[in-house]
## 1
Amino acid sequence: MLTPRFWRNNSSNPGMMTFFLTPFSWIWTLGLKHRLNVPSYKVKVPVICIGNINLGGVGKTPAVIAFTEKLKEIGLNPHIVSKGYRGKLIGPILVSEKHDSKDVGDEPILLSSFAPTWVSKDRVKGAKEAVENGCDIIILDDGFQNGYLHKDFSVIVVDAKRGFGNERVFPAGPLRESVDRGLKRADLMLLVGDEPDRVRFLNENKEIELEIFEANVEVIETGFEWKNARVLAFAGIGNPEKFFESLRNVGANILKKIPLSDHTNLNRKLILRLLKEANEMDAILVTTEKDAVRLPEEFKSEILTLPVRMLINDWEKINKQIEQLTSNN
């Protein structure tokens, strides 16, 4: 869904809709307490959870990729475990070329290019399969609000520009849980964004005691000249504006931008309409890597993607904590 505007209001003046929806937030919070207050199962290898307090659009998927790549660089064999949001397969199942986003969701398809990725609605079963198949460390994609699988180290990803919005819990606001509750359970915050946005967030949230590491997302060079390229851009991710901003940063001339709901079904009818519109504008149709895995096969060669990767500052400090994790297991 596209996020309501009142979610972005200042916490001191959240708006009337927030107050109207607050009773439903209480119900949501009761459900969260139930999911957290359960016995947790600890597997034989360390589990690093990459999650968030916000509902989405904070940069979690690039963070999972960044951690995966770094773990491989230091000689570890990470496997990724994901619930496979909107995928029809229950799992546990190892994502392979025979699967599409309808089977396992879009994120696992993308993540499987970087490490063995297990999709399982039951995260404990997925983690067990990963261990039995030789991993020595698990990256849990999301699952911060699920207590069934023990996490040895939890990272919450925060978008520096959006922050925590009106700081209310869904549906009164953009949060899965209260900021205080989430920060108390996390081991590290990964603050993602351009430097001015990170500086502003840090100045406005000086009371946060959790250790904060900073990161930014950069476009990968592919050889395509984006500067002045005429593009029609569409994105069905948690925060489409981040994608449009990345295109502007590389100099693309965005003739039209089309924000879609997160995980939108990119069916043949929709793509044909977008291709027709782009052709009439003499523009290139471009989307995100995550959206690209949901494209019908016949159109994948006709639509460009803008690949991005996350760069994490002070990785050496994180590496020391990972070394401690692996030595204790």
Note: The mean pLDDT is 91.
## 2
Amino acid sequence: MRRIMGLVVLLAGLSAVPAFATEPAQERWASAGAEGYRLLQRDSAQLQVSATAYCDAPSDARREQVERHWHAAFGRWQAVRFIDFGPLLVDSRGWQLQFWPDNKNLVGSQTERLLQHSGDQPPSLNSVAVQGFPALEFLLFDPQLQTRSEALPSVGSCRVLKAVAERLADNASQLQADWQAYAQRYREDPEAEAKMLLAALHALEQLRDKRLGQPMGMPAGRRNVYLAEAWRSQSSLQAAQASLQGLQTYFLPGLEMQLQGAAQQRLAVRFAELLQSALVRFETLPPGMATVLEDQTHYLQLQRLYIDIDGLARLLGGDIAVELGVVRGFNASDGD
């Protein structure tokens, strides 16, 4: 039910991006980024409001509302997460919004430390590991924490919940404002189209190699749900679905505008069809990764999804990039 409700909210907003057939691709992408960040800001603000209301007067209904708003705002972030340049690079905002990968469980250990904070003042959120969606996810969904006295709605956990929700909402608001200021420079940037194509390519490769591949044990390891993002909320695949839906809504229309020639249009059609095929795969998969890794039937379907995403990455980074004259360079979020 959470998955359905979260996706209904997400898809309703994604469909609102305006279409203007005569505008250049970078104009479409600048507008799409503005719309995506606007929705992220709106839903992050709503999450902050519901977190405060829950802690001020706890109830089961208000707890469910906080969880629902977390899923909605997290989905908004997944949809625009591929735009890994511009204002997102300021002060490592991408990491502030979502600290992942987290192989050392810094989100859990550092959020636990914040729970020990005493006094009436809000805790200091000095680490990026405790400033975004994963820290809120820990407070709301961590199975071990939920059995302890420190669990919500205790005073300590509510103090942290409200502080992190406020930081998240502030970052989303600043990101929206900064994109508005950056958008004109982006429209005039001769590398604008290449930047967006390479951002989408990097997002597909990260989805294939890290977000799906690592917990799947690809290419020759053991399956491990704890290597997946959002495993505590059992929404790893729901997040992946939102990311692909974001590419379909925010990236694909501009790509289709770039690929206007007859041969180019065939590439656009191939990409669109493969993207839709990947999205259809989610209809038979649960929102979380744990069940999929344990059930062989589901795992085979996940493997087919992996192959679809690999095909998307190869097509975008191969024939499409060559056709458009885009040369791959270093990406700031590639890591070592």
Note: Residues 98 and 133 are 6 Å apart (CA to CA).
